[in-house]
Amino acid sequence: MKIILIALTMLSLTACYEDTDVTIHEAGVYKGKVDKHNQTSEEREAILAKRFKQVQTDR
Amino acid sequence: MARMKFLCDEERCIECNACVTACKNEHEVPWGVNRRRVVTMDDGLPGEKSISVACMHCTDAPCQAVCPVDCFYTTDDGVVLHDKDMCIGCGYCLYACPFGAPQYPQEGAFGARGKMDKCTFCGGGPEEDHSHEELEKYGRNRLAEGKLPLCAEMCSTKALIAGDGDIVSDLFRNRVIRRQGRQETWGWDTAYQD
Amino acid sequence: MKLTKRNANSSANQQGVDRRAFLKGSGIAAGGAAFLSLLPPAMIQKVEAAEGHRHAYDEGEITKVRSVCSHCSVGCGVVAEVQNGVWIGQEPSFEHPFNLGSHCAKGASLREHGHGEKRLKYPMKKVAGKWQRVSWEQAIDEIGDKMLSIREQSGPDSVYWLGSAKHNNEQAYLFRKFAALWGTNNVDHQARICHSTTVAGVANTWGYGAMTNSYNDIHNAKAIFIIGANPAEAHPVSLQHIFRAKEKGAPVIVVDPRFTRTAAHADHYMAIRPGTDVAFVWGMLWHIFKNGWEDKEFINQRVYGIDDIRTEVAKWTPDEVERVTGTKEADVLKAAQTMAEHRPGTFIWCMGGTQHTTGNNNTRAYCIFQLVLGNMGVSGGGTNIFRGHDNVQGATDLGVLSHTLPGYYGLSEGAWKHWAKVWDLDYEWMKNRFDQGSYEESGGKPANPMNTKGIPVSRWIDGVLEDKDNIAQNDNVRAMVLWGHAPNSQTRGPEMKTAMEKLDLMVVVDPYPSISAVLSDRQDGLYLLPAATQFETYGSLSSSNRSMQWRHKVIEPLFESKPDHVIMHKFATKLGFADQLFKHITINGEEPLIEDVTREFNKGMWTIGYTGQTPERMKLQSDNLHTFNKTTLKAEGGPCDGEYYGLPWPCWGTADMKHPGTPLLYDTSKSVAEGGLTFRARFGVEHDGDNLLAEGSFSAGSQITDGYPEFTADMLKKLGWWDDLTPTEKVAAEGKNWKTDLSGGIQRVAIKHGCAPFGNAKARAVVWEFPDPVPIHREALYTNRRDLIEKYPTYDDRRSFYRLPTRYGSIQKQDFSKDYPLIMTSGRLVEYEGGGEETRSNPWLAELQQEMFVEINPADANDAGVKHGEQVWVDGPEGGQIKVMAFVTPRVGRGVVFMPFHFGGHYQGKDLTDKYPAGTVPYALGESCNTVFTYGYDSVTQMQETKVSLCRIRAA
């Protein structure tokens, strides 16, 4: 009986093992696909600044 | 480097919802998903004010900080976007967002929560610009077309302003100077007298 | 895979874009996109609406097409992107002078018109209570046979042709001509129930019944007065113009029973009791006269009858104003003083002023207010009357009305002969198309139905239900054609249902089934014909500021729908007068050529100057939007140099005269040739011995430096200007006047000498032909202020008014206020338009406003024991009842409830979903507030009363 209890205790305790090798969350580091554009960010900025003037005319 | 910002001029917003339908129109956002909405405070009372709200594309975005799969990134233009292929639809970003921007379309027969959807500043997503994949997952990419978000471009009173934060604030400053500090809303001048 | 054809520049000439930026912006857009007007029409292919399919950039060339929004009278420019015939994108039209790219919720969702999944897809008829698909041929054949047999039995007046403000100008004109050739004046449209009292009141004050200035001109206003209007919801883009003035310092005053979204942006808001506009305006004038703030010189030179107004205004002491309107003296004084101290100020009104039994009194009181302050005929001033539908101004001008032919010529023999000449038809033949009997007298003599006003749309149900002995025509209305009309925008819902069931034949022509398809329990004799939207055809429209714009066709008609003018051609062919209707109009296949129709009305519309706007001139402007100044609307350089945008009418003379249009009516600071004008000499030269002509006031450059009557051939001879006419003009002008000379010579010569063809007179504050020559306050028929009835009673009942008995006093004398204690009023929501069938079928809009509601003040809600968000019954005094959601809000004052009128599809608690043809049920359904709205019609125009009635609220 004791042996069975010990065996059961051992079995149940095996579930309490913690593996420290799982993927660790590093907040803020993007892991997805890279978003590429044809223009440089400076070019885009200039284009969008022009567009802004068109949208927000004299009103 | 540009940092794209929205600003809603609450003196001008008339709650006409053009920004909301313009967004639906441009990206064919399904029923129930609202990338943008208009919020009214003190509805029907003196001092009633409305503002149009969407993702604010935060500089230090809380959604980005909490995302368990790290699907968020900030573009060179300062727009916060995410990779829907990675998103697990957990809703943690909604927890973190101060504006309630993240939306979750219902998917499948049991109404399961789908991948998060939100305002992209009309900047598409991490697929090739103007590709079918980008269109299907994120909607149109107006920034890559040299255009600004349609909500702001179509705003009925030019209340909603979108663009590089510096230019936006220049424009808004001029407006405020022109108004000479006069409150534009009925009842506001008496609202805090006591 | 990456191809884009969408470029950032919606016009070849953009301000603020340098060449390098342009290249960068469009480097991704190889070739760019051309506007449709530069491309052959074959570029646009017919397609099926591809539901659920998203169109990417690389599926074909993208064409940009310029159109104009069809949701309100502002006339916002639209840029549609079309690929393989599918409307795939909508871009802002930044260079458009009216909206600079802006839209409201409706305008920003226009592209949904290209999906149209809830549209009526093919002709249908009801057979034994079931919808059955039929072919166009079968439908036209069966309807036509039935109409001809009704005509045989009961005469032409038993078929009612109800047209629409959704027609473009060409279709509206054809529709009126169509009814004329069928032989009836039973033709009308929504203007009757939107601004008919404005048109009558304003035209009888100074000549023309339209917005005098423009949305853009509000930039120059020093003060803005808004009464009975909620432009923040009904005309949102107009707020862009209003804010521009406001941010330069102009105070905004809003007067409304409800704290509207417009009121939220006012400097000064005042609530008045619904239906007390005249009392309020006289209350302001009381202060103005008392303080001597009136513009005495302006009044002396240009206004007749102001002494009679003074007498009436003197009765409106601050105490009496407060007793009647509920507004305190300090508020009224502040409004009056603000307007007096900030001149010129503009005066804006809409349905809150017009839809009353005393609507014509209200509109005239508004005009008189502006005359007293000298705010007329100046930039920044004027009466800026915001019209409703996109082309309600055009449809009114082109006479889709039961009391006039196109151009406000009226129904006299002279008017018919004028149009017979334009149409090149035999007058006697036309006369014989009408019922030859006589059912009422005009000027003591029996009058033929050809010359008597037809039944107005507001009363068509009485044309069906009234005992035929009481109607001034041969028989009841037996067939009803509802062509682009939402019946739920009309009052007395339960009676309308009965009328629909009593008809022999009911025909609905509409892009959507509309409430007409589902309200009645008809089992047979109900046809639905699918009409195309204005994005599926092309032509001109007239926006509120009288500007005419050209719409290009965006897509081919969806499904089996057809444009209105094609359907008219089908009917005219079946009914046997197509040859006469289209005598000088080219027919391509079965489509009448729109440009020929424009040219035809150009030949006859001399009264209001619809003569100079040829298709070519309008199209040229559409291609050069960017050249127009965004405030003055004047083109600065470019091919349209000097013209005003849309050639706002009057655009005098023939197109050869190159008149630039008239941006501001009655503005004497400019010469007539440059768009200046005087008040029209419409009412004779004297009245009771007083001179009606202007005194010492005239338009710039006028060779007559005083008032003068309207121009005739004889007058030209007396002035010695006859020989300025060419020999051909002389032949045409002999014996004619400025309205009937088809050569335009009289107009040309008058303008050459700096004169206005229609004369130079005073505006009149007293309209002696009207029931109330001086506008006075009268209590509404359903009023709960029983204490005021004795002093301010309504009119006496009338025996025959627009062919029908019309009740006033007999209703008012009954006291409903005990059982129905709350004042009921109605209005608009930004998401929807009119009866709402189209907009409630647009998912992008319907999602935003899914439920019909009634706004109740918290106090009234507590009294009735109802809570916010709960269902309640609203009971009307004529027996209608509706079940809606309670929206408890202080937005409405205590004792007043408000409901929007856009909903339909529920009837007295019952959901009518099952009655729609399959696949056409709108996304949002709800009770129509007009099911509980009641009787009441304006004393001049038969406008319906929708702003004051009574009701009771109880928990459901």
Radius of gyration of chain A (CA) equals 30 Å
Give the ordered list of helices and strands of chain A: HH
How many β-strand stretches of chain B?
A: 8
- Helix content, binned percent of chain B: 25-40%
Mean pLDDT of chain B: 89
Number of helices of chain B: 7
Structural domain count of chain B: 1
Query: Roughly how much helix do the residues of chain A carry, as a percent range?
Result: 40-55%
DSSP strand content of chain B: 15-25%
Any idea of the CATH class of chain B?
Answer: Alpha Beta
Second-tier CATH architecture of chain B: 2-Layer Sandwich
Structural class of chain A: mainly alpha
**Helix and strand succession of chain B?**
EHEEHEEHEEHHEHH
Explain how this protein is built.
The complex is a heterotrimer of chains A (59), B (194) and C (956). With 59 residues, chain A is mostly helical. In chain A, 47% of the residues lie in helices and 0% in strands. Helices cover 26% and strands 16% of the residues of chain B. Chain B is built from seven helices and eight strands; from the N terminus they run βαββαββαββααβαα. In chain B, β4 and β5 form a beta hairpin. In chain B, the strands form four sheets. A two-stranded antiparallel sheet of chain B has the order 1-8. A two-stranded antiparallel sheet of chain B has the order 2-3. Chain B has one domain: Alpha-Beta Plaits, CATH 3.30.70.20. In chain C, 26% of the residues lie in helices and 15% in strands. The radius of gyration of chain C is 27 Å and the shape is globular. Chain C starts with 18 loop residues before the first helix and ends with a strand. The N terminus of chain C is likely disordered. The chains are: A mainly alpha (59), B alpha+beta (194), C alpha/beta (956).
Topology, please?
The complex is a heterotrimer of chains A (59), B (194) and C (956).
Chain A: H1 2-14, H2 41-55
Chain B: E1 4-8, H1 18-27, E2 36-41, E3 49-54, H2 62-66, E4 72-74, E5 80-82, H3 92-96, E6 106-107, E7 112-113, H4 132-138, H5 150-153, E8 160-164, H6 165-179, H7 188-191
Chain C: H1 19-27, E1 62-68, E2 77-83, E3 86-91, E4 124-127, E5 130-133, H2 136-154, E6 159-162, H3 169-182, E7 187-188, H4 196-206, E8 223-227, H5 231-234, H6 238-247, E9 252-255, E10 268-270, H7 277-290, H8 296-302, E11 303-304, H9 306-313, H10 318-325, H11 329-341, E12 345-349, H12 351-354, H13 359-372, E13 383-385, H14 392-397, H15 413-423, H16 427-432, E14 440-442, E15 445-447, H17 460-465, E16 479-483, H18 493-502, E17 505-510, E18 526-530, E19 539-542, E20 548-551, H19 564-575, H20 578-581, E21 587-588, E22 591-592, H21 594-604, H22 615-623, E23 686-687, E24 690-691, H23 713-719, H24 727-733, H25 745-752, E25 763-764, E26 798-801, E27 804-806, H26 809-812, E28 822-827, H27 837-840, H28 843-846, E29 853-856, H29 858-864, E30 871-875, E31 881-888, E32 896-900, E33 905-907, E34 910-911, E35 926-927, E36 949-955
